[in-house]
Structures are given as structure tokens and as C-alpha cells.
Amino acid sequence: MTKSNTSRSTLHQTILADLERKIVSGEWPPGHKLPFEVELARSYEVSRMTVNKVMTQLTKAGLIERRKRSGTFVAKPRGQSAILEITDVEAEVRALNLPYSYKLMSSVIRKANRHDAALLEVPGTTDILEIRALHMAHGEPFCLEERLINLGTVPEAAHAPFADGPAGAWLVQRVPWSAAEHKIFAITATADIARLLEIAARVACLLIQRRTWSTAGPVTFVRFTYPGEKHAIVASFTPAAG
Amino acid sequence: MTKSNTSRSTLHQTILADLERKIVSGEWPPGHKLPFEVELARSYEVSRMTVNKVMTQLTKAGLIERRKRSGTFVAKPRGQSAILEITDVEAEVRALNLPYSYKLMSSVIRKANRHDAALLEVPGTTDILEIRALHMAHGEPFCLEERLINLGTVPEAAHAPFADGPAGAWLVQRVPWSAAEHKIFAITATADIARLLEIAARVACLLIQRRTWSTAGPVTFVRFTYPGEKHAIVASFTPAAG
DNA sequence: GAAGAAAACATGTATATACATATTAATGCC
DNA sequence: GGCATTAATATGTATATACATGTTTTCTTC
User: Fold this and answer.
1) pLDDT digits (tens, 9 = 90+) for B157-171
2) Fewest CB within a 10 Å sphere: which of A41, B8, B13, B188?
3) Which of B212, B86, B101 lies closest to B149, judged by CA?
4) Is residue B219 part of a domain?
5) Which of B74, B99, B129 is the last residue of a domain?
């Protein structure tokens, strides 16, 4: 192909974003076989080298797995990333081999107040959905979730079936995030939290705050409160050399 | 150059590891100007493309900054990585614009007991160095550090001047880590910890455990205890598309 | 038909080349 | 000297090509 790229983003970025979308949206589920490099090169009208570089990056990001002679496959979700994983409470519970259940406690649509506006970085006029829910392991409280969803960015969330399962799982299917920020705190349980989590007041809890943005704007702000000293966040890293 | 790579690792990996070592070891300090791509290509006897791919990766890892026509420079340490940063207590304190000081409380060399051996993943016969120290901000306790160093991997640590400054800074200069694991807990301060950190007993604290390995084996196990609810760990991420 | 050798195949790495893009340096003009 | 224009330069992206490396398939041979 001759070179004439009229758009502003590079071919590399375009192809990477396209493949990534297909994977994280579930259009290509785990185990799905991707087209061969030469086929992708033909369909995107680029050279194999360009496709290969994109694939290499996706491999390092853990989204795909490649085997010589066999081809390329969407990776099994062994944690989309070390950090994304820490807020998939259901997977966390199941990894402990405990039965998981989910209890929606409240779900309210309202205008953002000043507090919400600050947390979500939205103007005060925005509609937001506020959710409070408990993640249960073996019938006992495992984690308290308090969530704000920006209906300006995700209007369809207003009618989502959040009574059936965690909002996080619903969101990640529909709204691919392009940035996320986590803050982790140790807090002392307030009376309110202690009652919900069925622990004594003033016990130390692990608090994880997560904010995500899509290209369309802020998506959600969520606070996970884990009771007591048993819980840990684990993150493993290797430097660039990987 | 004709192709004849006798070694087992690729040129890419070799060059990446070499440049990374020069940067993290401080041989090339922040702001240092790297040779041009063509010069590196000449000195490593590879093509510019190969060097360019390495440089692209180092740029994404945040180790270098590149400007067209100007060249390539070692990046200022705006946190070597979001996670490495969380255990550079001195930088953390200075970022808050507070005067930093360091107080070594104890430093003992001994054989690893069963507990140490489990934490560091070393046999019980290994010599270890155990350090206890306080990081102070504005003269007040900011963070308690409890550290085990594997003298089997880092024998020279036995004579390092750990009274002068944090062991972490000394180690990162000498022993480039190839893998790290973090665990984060909320704990309730024991009487011992409360006394050292000058807080009330049973206050919630944030506990960060960090283990690092070099290619030669386990390097260090360290526990940072931050008092109270003021402290947060912050991590920002963007998915592969970056 | 089973075992082993050879071919086919998909990815992995590296090269040489070309041109785009951003920024600095040099130049010419008044 | 000041200012716009042009040239030089280093990085950024993409291509076509070549060969290496593991796997899987196919083909021999017994």
C-alpha cells in the first residue's frame, strides 16, 4: 500500500484500538481465534509488520495469546490487569472457592450534588445513578460497594438490571474504559458501615476508590469497603524489560 | 549487518536491558542525553529500527523522554512507576513539601528463622539483615519500615551505611529488581506500632508489603506501616491503547 | 498402520529503505 | 539587529524483504 494517511491518528493506533474494542466488548470472547497476521494486514490494507507490532503490544498487555503455526487467540480473563482485577469482587470471592451472591440495597437517580460533582468531575446539573450494594461470600458480607454512575456518559445505565448482578460487570461490557485511577485507604469502620458489614464499630477496613473514564468522559466512581484485616490487594510487576 | 545471533536472548532484549541498567543504576542520571539512534545502532551493530523499537518501549515505560531534533534524555524521576513510587517514602514526604528525615532504629545480621525464610523465600541457613527504621516528616513519624534483606543475594548490604539513609534507595541503586510483588492491608495498630508511630493503639493503619527479586534471587522483603486514615495509595492506568 | 523425515505454515526478529513530522539552526532580506 | 524563510536534523511511522523458530501436517518407508 502507498502511504496516504489522511486521519490524525496512526494506523498502529487505529488497529490497536479496533482489536482492543472487539476483545474487551466481548465481540471476540476468550478463546476466539483471531485472523492471521496476513489476513488482518490485507483487511486493514497495511503491511504484516504493522499488524505484528500491534499484536506484540496486545500480547504484552495480556489480551491475546499467540502460538506459532496455530495462530492467535483471545486470552482467558486471568485478570484483565492486576489492578482492574482488584475490583472484580465476584471473581475474588469465587477464587476463594466460596459461593457468591449480590444484594442491591439502594439505587437512586438524582442530580449530582456538590459532593458527587467533585468525585466524578462532572457539572452539578448532570444526572447520576447512585448504587449501594453488598457482595456476599457464603451468605456473609464480603464487601460493601458504593457507586456513582455518570448518566451523562452512560444514559442506558438508568434502565440496567442492577438488581441482578454487580454494576461493574455490566459497565465493563458496555463502556470500555480508557483510563482508571485507584486510591487505597485504611479506614476505621463507621457505625453505618460496621452494621452493613456485620462487624464491630471502629474495626480497620480496607477502602478502595476507583474512578474510570471513557473517551466520552467520566464513567463511574466506586468505593469498595472490605472489612477487617484479612483482605489484601496484590499487585505484581516486572519492569520494562519484560 | 548480517544475521548471526549466537546468544539465546534477542538483540532487542539485550539492548533494552543494557539501557535500562544504565538508567536505573544512575550511570545515566535524569536529564542525561542519550546517544542518537544512529550512534546506538552503530555501537550495538544493529539497524536503527531495532534501536528505535527499544527506545519506543523505554518511552512507554517512562524511563526516557524524546524530542524530535533535540534527542533523547533520561526522564526525571516522576515516579519510576506508579507502584515503585509507593515505597519511595522520602519522595512521598518531599512531595508534600515537608522536611524529611530518617531514623534507623535497629539493624541486625542473623540466620533466617522459619518466619523470615517463608517471607523471603530463602532456605533457613541464609544470612539476613533485619532493619527497623522510621521515616519522619517535619520531625514526626510518617511511616514505619521493617525490612529483611537477603545477604545471600546482596552480601555487600552487610556493610552498607544504612544509618545515613533509607535502605530502599541504597538497594535500588545497586540491585536492579526484575520482579516485585505488593500486598496492601488495613490493620489495627498494635501497642508496639502505636508507640513508635506516636498514635493511639487500635487506630487503623495502611500496611504495604513489598517483595522484590533480582535475576540472582530474592532481594528484600519490606513492610511499610502508615498511621491513620490520611494516607492513600494512588495508581493510574490506561489500557494497552496508550 | 506406526515411526520418522520432510514440507508447510504462522509467528518472531531483524534489516534496509522511505517518507512524515517536529524542532532547531542557518540564511537572506530589509 | 529583527524577522521570515529555508535547510538541516532526530525522531516517528510504515513498508517490503529475509530468514529464524517452533508447530502441525503430510509424506515416506518399513
Assistant:
1) 999 999 988 998 888
2) B8
3) B212
4) yes
5) B74
